[in-house]
Structure formats: structure tokens, C-alpha cells
Design goal:
abc type-2 transporter like fold; mainly alpha; 2 domains; 414 residues; 4-stranded mixed β-sheet
């Protein structure tokens, strides 16, 4: 009988939340709207991938009459890189910058006149003419990829320059060459080093257990938005526990012949079912409307349950620590945003310092987002086992701690 009451309490809470228009806006409409909006900004719905992680539009303005400007163009035209970056030549730097300002390009690379000459002149200590990288600040991921390739090229150029200077100085010191031969020999050494190294700038893309799987920007955005608003939902569930305690609903349940532990268990189960239902609806909706593939269905199903369990534990903990429903509402909103940042709901955590990534591991967002993205890129169940275990341990620890603290407060004591 008590077990039936546990499920009755949980289903009652689930029905109440889904009958609340404001709750439905936060649970379903807001994450859908944000996912659609961010998908539109990335070009996911227009078919134009200028903001996606493929065919990044870049213009190279090569004003250099020497060899290095041509080598740079060849690097971006190589078979490995042109799959990722759509680089086009142009002669007018002003017009190219205007295209970046209009949002039509990710970046412009301007190789000025005299760049090759300043590198290969062989004059020690001479001023190097610098390449200009004009980027669109609203697309840091795309521009970061382009910049890293450009920096790799410039590193090889600098290696050639330094090598040439060292070799020339050694030859001069030993008397093997005359001073009037230094410039020509230094330039030749520089050409050899840069020429032999430019072919080493390659892009190798691999996907674990998912060859041929294409990157979809929504597969990156949708889990983050779902987990962000999931934290709002579980904080709302914790708040409802304190509301019922204040309004006397909890006291009326305690009058009935029901074990207090089952009442608390029913409330916790209600938060978990609400969280799982929210994730299931959001994932099903994106699959249906956007044809988004979430990957291995078994892994997705288990990850939904594990993420809901880990997140709902935070809802129970907030209800056990905070004193009023208002405090839970305010703290829950702050925690949801903080966990969204630390857990990678807004951006790729790989660009953040190591300590940020480590701190983010306390959030269910980090483990769930990582698991969903692994699955969407073709990973199988075995690839997310650590994510599932971490979320289950997190949920169990938080539920246990929250239950102990609630019992000590006497909220579910007869």
C-alpha cells in the first residue's frame, strides 16, 4: 500500500507541473526557442554553413609578390584543409573586411607586400612585415580554427627564418662564405625549411566508432539547452516540497497511515519523473522537427534517466538546505546559470582552463552534455559508461544527503 502511495504522490506532482502554463514555458518552450534561435544563428536551418564547423568562409588577400604568400594560399587550398575551410582569393582588402563586418565571412587573411622579402632577406634583426588577421568576433569557434592554421604556418616560417640566420652566422664565423654571400644563402635556407614544412600542416578528423558521421551544430546546442532548463525544473520541484510543507499539504499526508520516508520518496520520485519527461520530450521534439540524430537509442535512453537522476538530486538538496520557497527559486535560478556555464551548455569547455573543466565535473550538465555529444557523433553505449556512472553516483549521494537533512528538519516527521 505504501509503495502505491509513493507512486501516487510522484504522479500527482508530475500532473501538477504539466498543468502549470508557466512551468511548461520554462520546461519546454524556452529550451526549444533557444535551440531554434541558436541553430538559426549558426546557419543550421538555412543550409548555409558559414557559422558551422565546416566550410568556414575565409578570404585571403595576397599582396605579396614573393613566395611565402603563394605558399600560404596553397596551405589553405590543400585537400585536408579545404574540407573544413572555404578559402577564396581576393585583391581588395577593404572589400574583404566589409564582408566580415556584414557577417558573410568568418575572417580575412591579408598578406602585405614585402612579407616574403622581410622574411627571406637574411638581414638579422630586420623588421618583419606582419600578416593581418581580420576576424568576426561573433564566431569565435570558426575564427579560432582558422587562426590556429595560420599560426601553424607562421611558426614554420619563423623556424625557417631563425634557421637561416643561425646557419649563415655559423658559416660566416667559420669563414666558409663571404659577407656578400650571406643574404642569398640565408634566403635559400629559409625557402628550404618553409617549403619542406608547409606540407606538414594537415587536418586529421577522426570520430570514435562513427566513421562518416557529420557534425551537426544542433547536436551540440540542444543537449546544452535541455540540461540548462532541466536545472530550473528540478529546483522548482524542490521548491514545491517546501510550499507543501508551509501550506499544510504535507501535514495532511502525514495524518494518513503512510510512512514519512515514502512521502519524501514520492516527492523525490516526482522530481525525477518530471526531469526525465522533460528530457524525453525535448529530445523527441528535436528528433521529430529538426531530424536530429541523437545516436544509439539504448545509450540515449539510459543517459536521459541518469541525467534526470543526477539533476533531481540537486533539487532535493536545495530543498533540504534552504528555508523558504523563495530562497529555492532564487538560488535555483543562479545554480542553473552557473551549472550551464561550468557544464558547457553555452560553449565548448575545451577552450577553457583546466581548473574550470575540473570544477565543471560537479555539475550534471558536464557529464550529460558530454555523453549526448559522444552519442550524436556516433559513439556507442560503452563510450558513455563513465558519464552514466558519474551521474548515478551524483544523484545517489545528493538524494541521500538531502533526505538526511530534510528528516533532521522535521519536514516529513509525524
Amino acid at each position: 500500500m505504501n509503495l502505491r502511495k509513493l507512486f501516487f504522490i510522484a504522479l500527482k506532482d508530475l500532473r501538477l507541473i504539466f498543468r502549470d502554463p508557466a512551468g511548461l514555458v520554462f520546461m519546454l518552450l524556452a529550451p526549444f526557442a533557444l535551440t531554434i534561435g541558436m541553430g538559426a544563428l549558426t546557419g543550421r536551418f538555412s543550409g548555409f554553413t558559414q557559422f558551422g564547423i565546416s566550410q568556414i568562409p575565409v578570404v585571403i588577400v595576397n599582396q605579396d609578390s614573393g613566395e611565402l604568400g603563394k605558399v600560404l594560399e596553397d596551405v589553405f587550398a590543400s585537400d585536408e584543409i579545404k574540407q573544413l575551410i572555404a578559402a577564396q582569393p581576393q585583391s581588395d582588402p577593404t572589400a574583404a573586411r566589409a564582408l566580415v563586418d556584414e557577417g558573410k565571412l568568418a575572417a580575412v587573411i591579408i598578406v602585405p607586400e614585402g612579407f616574403s622579402e622581410s622574411i627571406m632577406s637574411g638581414e638579422s634583426g630586420g623588421e618583419v612585415v606582419r600578416i593581418e588577421f581580420y576576424e568576426n568576433p561573433t564566431h569565435p569557434t570558426s575564427t579560432g580554427i582558422v587562426r590556429s592554421i595560420l599560426e601553424s604556418f607562421l611558426t614554420q616560417v619563423e623556424v625557417g627564418r631563425v634557421s637561416g640566420a643561425l646557419i649563415v652566422n655559423q658559416l660566416l664565423s667559420s669563414g666558409a662564405i663571404q659577407l656578400n654571400q650571406a643574404a642569398a644563402i640565408g634566403a635559400e635556407v629559409g625557402r628550404e625549411v618553409v617549403g619542406n614544412s608547409s606540407g606538414s600542416i594537415n587536418l586529421i578528423t577522426t570520430t570514435a566508432e562513427g566513421s562518416g558521421v557529420k557534425f551537426d551544430i544542433l547536436a551540440y546546442l540542444a543537449p546544452g539547452m535541455a540540461m540548462l532548463f532541466l536545472m530550473y525544473t528540478v529546483s522548482f520541484g524542490g521548491r514545491s516540497l517546501l510550499v507543501e510543507s508551509r501550506t499544510g499539504t504535507m501535514a495532511r499526508m502525514l495524518i494518513s497511515p503512510t510512512n514519512p520516508g515514502f512521502i519524501l520518496g514520492g516527492k523525490g520520485l516526482g522530481i525525477f519523473l518530471t526531469a526525465a519527461a522533460q528530457l524525453l520530450i525535448l529530445i523527441g521534439g528535436t528528433s521529430l522537427f529538426f531530424h536530429l540524430s541523437w545516436g544509439d537509442w539504448r545509450g540515449v535512453a539510459l543517459l536521459i534517466l541518469a541525467a534526470a537522476f543526477g539533476a533531481s538530486g540537486w533539487g532535493i538538496l536545495m530543498a533540504s538546505v534552504l528555508k523558504t520557497p523563495g530562497q529555492v527559486a532564487i538560488t535555483g535560478s543562479a545554480v542553473a546559470l552557473l551549472f550551464g556555464v561550468l557544464g558547457g551548455s553555452f560553449f565548448d569547455l575545451s577552450v577553457m582552463p583546466e581548473w574550470v573543466r575540473k570544477v565543471g565535473m560537479i555539475t550534471p550538465n558536464s557529464w550529460a552534455n558530454d555523453g549526448f555529444r559522444i552519442l550524436s557523433m556516433g559513439g556507442k553505449f560503452a563510450a558513455i559508461q563513465s558519464n552514466l556512472i558519474a551521474l548515478l553516483i551524483m544523484g545517489a549521494a545528493l538524494y541521500t544527503l538531502g533526505t538526511i537533512l530534510l528528516s533532521r528538519r522535521g519536514l516529513v516527521r509525524k
